Amino acid sequence: MERKVEEGGSSLRSKLLKITIGVILIGIVIAYVGWVSIRIIPTGFKGVVLTWGEVTGVVDPGLRFITPVAQDIILMDMTIRKAETTENAASSDLQEVSTTVAVNYQLDPGFVDVIYKTLRTDYEERVINPTIQESIKAATAMFTAEELVTRRPEVVIQFDEVLTEKLKEYHIMVLTVSITNFQFSPQFAQAIEAKVVAAQRALEAKNKLEQIRYEAQRIVIEAEAYYNATVRKAEADAEALRLRREQLDSLILQWTALERWDGKLPTFMGSGAIPFIQVPVNETVKP
User: Fold this and answer.
1) CB of 50 closer than 8 Å to CB of 30
2) Of all residues in the chain, what percent are helix, strand and coil, respectively (each to 5)?
3) Beta bridge partners of 183
4) CA–CA separation, 219 and 112 (whole Å)
5) Cα separation of 33 and 67, whole Å?
6) Helix axes 152-167, 129-140, angle to 10 degrees
7) Are 59 and 91 a contacting pair, CB within 8 Å?
């Protein structure tokens, strides 16, 4: 009897153990299914939903649920990204130039599924870098080596236009472009340096010539001022001398007339004043 009871208890414990293990396994499976069904889309990304490998939708950032095994979500970076590359090209005058460029770009949010279908997630290696290299070659070929330096803003604009037009086909937006460096051959760099030195010397000579010209003009102006002042002074002296001479001439005439007068007053008939200088005469009374 006791033996039967022990066997029955052992069988019950075995059943309970199996049930417990089954419940635990079911819990693990449910937890695993729940875990693999959850996807978190971070801020700055969009999720491309794949159902049995086919693109079936695009989801925004947040907590998302998928069907395990049948579905998956691929993250697509929607932040502003930077691509930088260095490319050897030739200018319009066939000078070799190494150009380093940096491009800020962003995926078009309305075509994320199309981008994934055509380029997957390696769009930078497959499209952006090759297009940048092709565009910088096309842009530098429009300018001479000297113009690449002196007309740099125009080179950037041309490069931007070419690159934007090419990447638009892949729904990739170009935000900003910049040319960070131009590296020329040593021979051309020496030629540029020599030209710059010559230009600086020419500018110094021009400035010196302008200084000499200014000094000469200053001397001429001072000489003209001195001449004008001297002429005006001479004219003033001549006028004063003329006036004095007129006064002296009048006095000399009167003095000459007095010296020649014999002391007799002229005979005058009629009324009126005596038309000559009246000179007082002292009469001497004879005894």
Assistant:
1) no
2) 55, 20, 20
3) 98
4) 78
5) 9
6) 140
7) no
CB within 8 A of 62, min separation 6: which ones?
A: 40, 41
Buried/exposed 57-83: b ≥16 CB within 10 Å, e otherwise = ebeeeeebebeeeebbbbbbebeebeb
Condensed to tens digits (0 to 9), the pLDDT of residues 90-132 reads 898 888 899 999 999 999 999 999 999 999 999 999 999 999 9
- Name every residue whose Cβ is closer than 8 Å to that of residue 87 and which is 6 or more positions away in sequence: 98, 99, 101, 132, 133, 136, 137
Q: Which amino acid is at 215?
A: E
Q: Which two tokens stand for residue 226?
A: 């001195």
pTM score, whole prediction: 0.60
Burial of 103 (0-12, 13-18, 19+ CB in 10 A): buried
Residue-level pLDDT at 254: 67
Cite the DSSP H helix spans in 38-126.
112-119, 123
Strand order in the sheet with 81-90: 81-90, 96-107, 172-184
C-alpha 232/C-alpha 222 separation (Å) is 15
Question: What would the DSSP string read from start to end of 223-252?
Answer: HHHHHHHHHHHHHHHHHHHHHHHHHHHHHH
> How many other CB atoms are there within 10 angstroms of residue 155's CB atom?
21
Which residue carries 């729940």 as its tokens?
Answer: 34
Q: Are 127 and 170 spatial neighbours (Cβ–Cβ below 8 Å)?
A: yes
- The residues near 80 (Cβ < 8 Å, ≥ 6 apart) are 104, 105, 106, 175
